Amino acid sequence: MIAVHVFKTALINLLQADAAVVALASNRIYDEAPEDQRGVADVASPYAYLGPIHATRLESDGVPGWTLRLRLYAASTSFGRSEAWSLMDAICAAIDGKILILPAPYVHAQQSYVASGGDVIDALNPKLVYVDLSAIVAG
């Protein structure tokens, strides 16, 4: 699905260009969890990555589109959850209410919004917090 690909690419680019996100995570915003996170625990922290993406087809006036729901994770290997939550706060501020510029023929048809969030407790892995994002892409 090209609509999903262009949206997630634009989202990652937006986050990697946001000053508050960069101040916390540098350019460590990934399409998926970094390879080292699954094996060698040698990934700079904090970082963020896209989790599951769900797309539902919709049509409006004969124009095809997609309602996208994305989960974004912020991860930290430091003690406590505050570093991960700080990164997620910066991510939410960068995303919420924004309309991304997508390559033609795609249009981000409605402002993105953060629908929900929480944290994941797993003693053997980095601290994770997440938000679920919703967006509509037409084209």
Describe the structure.
With about 140 residues, the chain is of the alpha+beta class. It has one domain (about 1-35, about 45-139): STM4215-like. It has 4 helices and 5 strands; from the N terminus they run H-H-E-H-E-E-H-E-E. The chain has helices at about 1-15, 20-25, 35-40, 80-95, and strands at about 30, 45-60, 65-75, 105-120, 125-139. A 5-stranded mixed sheet has the order 1-2-3-5-4. Strand 4 and strand 5 (about 125-139) form a beta hairpin.
The gist of it:
By secondary structure, this protein is of the alpha+beta class. It has helices at residues 2-17, 19-25, 35-38, 82-95; strands spanning 29-30, 47-60, 63-76, 107-120, 127-138.
Task: Compile the SSE list and pairings.
Elements: H1 2-17, H2 19-25, E1 29-30, H3 35-38, E2 47-60, E3 63-76, H4 82-95, E4 107-120, E5 127-138
Helix pairs in contact: 2-4
